[in-house]
Amino acid sequence: AQAGVVIVGAGPAGLVLGNLLLDRGIDCVILERRDRAAVEGRARAGFLAAHSVRVLTENGLAAGLLARGKTHTTCLFRSVRGQFTLDYGKLGLGEPHTVYPQQELVRDLIAEYLRRGGEIRFGAEAEEVAGEAGGEAAGEAGEGRVRVRVRGGADVTGRYVAGCDGHRGIGRAALTAHGTRTARRDHGVSWLAVLVAAPPSLEAVGYALHERGFAGHMARTAAVTRYYLQCPRGTDPADWSEDRIWTELAIRLRTDEFGPLRQGAVLEKAVVDLRSDVLESPGAGRLWLAGDAAGLISPSAAKGANLAVLQAELLARALEGALAHGDGTGLARYAADCLPRVWRAHEFSHWMSGLLHGPAGEDDEARYGRALQYARLESLRTSRTHQDFFAENYTGI
Ligand code: FAD
């Protein structure tokens, strides 16, 4: 049997897309290489922008996050110059964040997708997109089909393939093999991302600027908190014992001055290299990408999952046009619809990265870079205009 849309990847992008397509009467099948427990247990993002919450709510996908998510409207900055809180919910467009762990959202999305009658094949690794992928003009809604080869299993065919398989996925590989170019930046910074079994220590997200490197505090649930520690590229997480993590967090978050952190067991630690990239066109012909597959964004402004929801929403509408109404204009416009918003998120992420990470070293350039970092922080502390800019971009998508 042929699906309308073969979705590769059951992350936020693929699952939102699948739910929206089923709701519009378009049949689809999701191929996911991991098993269900692995997908539902993967702790990653936690901050949902107001736009994401709106999309999920309007499409009947928000019961869990509305019941268990926490609204956040402030964030805190600490440095050698003291600390200040930004009440961003009262600045800019006046929008909050909803803090809801990504794995809980994924769990909700899988349950709802299955309830709507959707099919997910767990443990099905897509190996290659074959057939007409990329071979037709973008937006053409002909009768062609596309085939996805599955490792050790039967091929799956559909009218379209949605590559929602992350930045190392086969969707992106197939497009770049057809000549799609990528714009990228390595921010030259890495973070040790730590998940701890302890309640949050601050009421808000905390960003600490320190000569030893950035440290971040992000609430997740009443019992789990995420911390970040800037670390040298190539760091082995195994070199960071629990003691070392808590000692370094205490130094950078200046607990002597501002009070202790609530400690608990380290549940997970991993090193994330801060890199960003954007495909110049997120699809062509019968292959269209959404989420990290279409572009990876450094986590400095917590935009990744939100861009995944945005792109899934836009792609669902475009695929509905093509499949239900024979109208390919939505697909033809998909890049133009999403890229300006994607680039604004990247611009702000890059701006945040400049705020959070000063250059290391004692040469003239490093001292100049650090002075700029503190000038940016001071401007954010004192200038209402700058605060509005921050709030609008911090919560916006
Ligand atoms: P993914 O979630 O990566 O899902 C892709 C899926 O495709 C996976 O399930 C994978 O197993 C599957 N797959 C891959 N290849 C294949 C294949 N060949 N065949 C079948 N299946 C395949 N974003 C935020 O907005 N806010 C945050 O606070 C935030 N914090 C983060 C913290 C960390 C430590 C990390 C790593 C990321 C964070 N992000 C954050 C980013 C966010 O998690 C990602 O942007 C988001 O998961 C992207 O969703 P996606 O659906 O595009 O991709």
UniProtKB/TrEMBL annotation:
The keyword Hydrolase does not apply. Keywords: FAD, Flavoprotein, Oxidoreductase. It comes from the Bacteria. Residues 4-349 form the FAD-binding domain. Pfam families: FAD_binding_3. GO terms for molecular function: 4-hydroxybenzoate 3-monooxygenase activity. SUPFAM superfamilies: FAD-linked reductases, C-terminal domain (SSF54373), FAD/NAD(P)-binding domain (SSF51905). It is an enzyme of class 1 (oxidoreductase). Its EC number is 1.14.13.2. This is 4-hydroxybenzoate 3-monooxygenase.
